[in-house]
Amino acid sequence: MTTAAVAMAAATARLRAAGVPDPARDARLLLAHAASVDAARVTLIAPEEIAPEIAERYEHLIALRAVRVPVSHLVGERAFYGRGFKVSRDVLDPRPETESLIEAALAAPFERVLDLGTGSGCILVTLLAEREAATGVGVDLSEGACLQASANAVLHGVASRADICQSDWFASVEGRFDLIVSNPPYLAQVEMEDIAPELALHEPAMALTDGADGLSVYRLIAGTAQGYLSAQGRVLAEIGWQQGEDVAAIFRNAGWADVAILPDLDGRDRVLCAQNPA
Length: 278
Known about the structure:
The protein has helices spanning 4-17, 23-35, 42-45, 52-66, 71-75, 99-106, 122-130, 143-155, 197-202, 205-208, 216-224, 244-253; strands spanning 77-80, 83-86, 112-116, 135-140, 162-166, 177-182, 229-238, 258-263, 269-275. It is an alpha/beta fold.
């Protein structure tokens, strides 16, 4: 039989040869999943022999990761703002940079929130979990995404305050909101040629790109959100790190008086904040 340490070393080498970024981390996380132990405990079981059924399960997981299936899809969840969110091929993985939008949203009070293109629901669910008096609506064109967001709302105990529905952006939205948030598809179509296999093969293209210049949804929000925003309401949208000037100009040209671009933890442009529309 093989020890966990030997199996991890072999898996790491296999993933490295396949071009997987940070292969040692992924080998460790997948062994933890195969053995049903916390990732922090993997080093404790490293000297131990692994049972045949665990070794078989681990081999299957490593084979899938070697063809660039994301770790989150293999283990079924991804961490975001201190919570685990269930994910699938129907939604984008929650990403650390999106936590900058959460921080900006929580910097001011809100009671009613609209999440455009909710995907996994990680933004809406997190905001409702952090603000226990708030209610919200999450919309997505994808039925699969709506089901995933609904499941995450149940998982984190906010389902009674979250209305998830299928909608083409604002099409089925009614009422006004203190906060409108979105992580829209912001990659230009030409950028899709250079994205990692994990994104290109395993995440929904409609959540990555608008099929054009990557700015069309910002134009839609800038021209439409004023009809759904309360008097003191805010719009927060994630942007690509090179899009700050373009997105700010879109909102200013649409008549928004207060427009700011906020950085992420790496200091790169990441979040549009707009208030006081014309």
